[in-house]
Design a protein that fits this description.
The structure is a single chain. The chain has 441 residues and is an alpha+beta fold. It is globular, with a radius of gyration of 25 Å.
Length: 441
């Protein structure tokens, strides 16, 4: 039997396989290790080392679940680019801690999207290697906080303020987030100001705590936001109606030092090929082995549509067509202009954000990497700049953005066949237009 039929699951196994490949192919040891790592299901030797380095060599030897965080970057000034990936261990699957929709509820996770059962990746490209590492470390700290506390981030800010009023919030708050306990239905406020600012407000914060009956506790674990830059975590909750803080503090104080850029222990690699996690590889292999009757369940449908499977969503359909890349770029530019202006009009922003996410999915199925490299793909529908936090728009501004959405409708109708997926997208565009038109009122 050829050695290439073997699929090792440990570094020792990869090394033994490399010795066999070295003899069979007559190649040197390092190239043989690279081949053996790829035959084991990894992208390269470095990928295999990072995945298998914990838990005594064997992937599943350590209790818990491994999640990979990936961010791609491009430094325009130096014309360099790459990928940063970090694997961390959690006590449970990341998808049991937070839903894909709830990723948007915390600043450190808002740009990440599921890429596999054990993989979260940012779909936009950041501007430097350092920025990529910082983004990953912040996301890792936030996932560790959730894994330890079992709390979920929330946008229900009023639930964590005295009398439900943000004007009653603790003095000197900064970089804060709201957390929710699914079992007790209670809320907690996580405040992460810089240490000198918090100390300067200590008397005011103590008086506020006494006046409203809220507890403020500072764990030893320094927090999620910027612990290596001086921010510190304070947990704040209503002493009778909020999340009990003592168990949360005790759990956090058992955590190791926060993951920070200075102690980077992840994988730094070229931006291509893209990173595929072990869970993604296993899922794809399982899908490839499905009987023909099972695969037909995904592909069967109207002749004007094509079936595909979306991670954590399941079987989906898209129009049977392929819009030119330059037209995708045009549509993306129009949608990003609307998104940049409508953050505080959720009836517009949330719908348009969903529309671009769906078009982004369609684009992935329409073009392979050779036709559409990652750098170009990431820029089509994401990475907008110059966002406004305007509370309202003038009639002329609203008319301009309504015109952009109408233009998107015309373009989509021109390039895709009439089909249920396209009609559903058009309904969202119509609802976005209606919300934009009534914004002033």
């Amino acid at each position: 039997m050829s050695s290439e039929a073997i699929r090792p699951s440990t570094m020792d196994g990869i090394k033994r396989l490399a010795n066999s490949i070295k003899v069979e192919r007559g190649i040197k040891h390092i190239p043989a290790l690279e081949v053996a790592a790829q035959l084991a299901g990894f992208q390269n030797l470095k990928h295999a080392q990072n995945v298998l380095k914990s838990g005594g060599n064997r992937l599943n030897a350590r209790p818990g679940h491994r999640v990979y965080l990936t961010v791609y970057w491009r430094d325009k000034e130096s014309d360099t680019r790459g990928r940063e990936t970090l694997g961390i261990w959690l006590g449970t699957l990341w998808s049991d801690l937070i839903t894909p929709a709830q990723l948007d509820h915390h600043r450190a996770l808002t740009h990440f999207q599921p890429e596999g059962p054990d993989h979260l990746a940012r779909r936009d490209m950041v501007q430097s290697q350092s920025q990529a590492r910082r983004a990953i470390c912040a996301a890792a700290r936030t996932l560790q906080f959730m894994d330890t506390t079992k709390l979920r981030p929330s946008k229900s800010h009023s639930r964590a303020f005295p009398a439900g009023q943000s004007s009653n919030a603790v003095p000197g708050r900064d970089h804060y987030s709201i957390w929710y306990d699914r079992e007790s239905k209670r809320y907690m406020f996580a405040d992460e100001p810089y240490e000198p600012a918090a100390e300067g407000k200590a008397a005011e914060r103590a008086a506020w705590s006494e006046r409203y009956g809220f507890d403020i506790i500072k764990p030893s674990w320094p927090g999620m936001y910027n612990p290596d830059g001086g921010s510190r975590l304070y947990l704040i909750a209503d002493s009778t109606k909020g999340v009990p803080l003592a168990p949360i503090v005790a759990a956090l104080d058992r955590l190791p030092a926060p993951i920070v850029e200075a102690a980077w222990d992840g994988e730094s690699a070229p931006s291509t090929p893209i990173f595929f996690s072990p869970g993604t590889i296993a899922r794809n292999e399982a899908a490839a082995k499905l009987p023909a009757t099972e695969t037909r369940k995904v592909t069967r449908g109207p002749r004007s549509t094509v079936g595909y499977v979306q991670t954590f969503v399941g079987p989906q359909r898209r129009p049977k067509g392929r819009m030119p890349i330059e037209v995708h770029a045009q549509v993306g530019k129009l949608l990003k202009s609307v998104l940049a202006a409508s953050y505080n009009r959720k009836g517009v922003y949330n719908r348009v954000n969903g529309i671009r996410s769906e078009l982004d999915e369609w684009t992935q199925r329409e073009y392979n990497y050779d036709e559409l490299p990652n750098e170009q793909f990431f820029e089509l529908y994401y990475h907008e700049s110059g966002s406004s936090l305007a509370r309202t728009l003038s009639p002329d501004e609203r008319a301009l953005h309504v015109g952009s959405l109408e233009q998107v409708k015309q373009i989509l109708a021109q390039h895709y066949p009439d089909s249920p997926p396209l009609r559903a997208l058009m309904k969202k565009l119509d609802a976005s237009i209606g919300s934009m038109q009534t914004w002033a009122s």
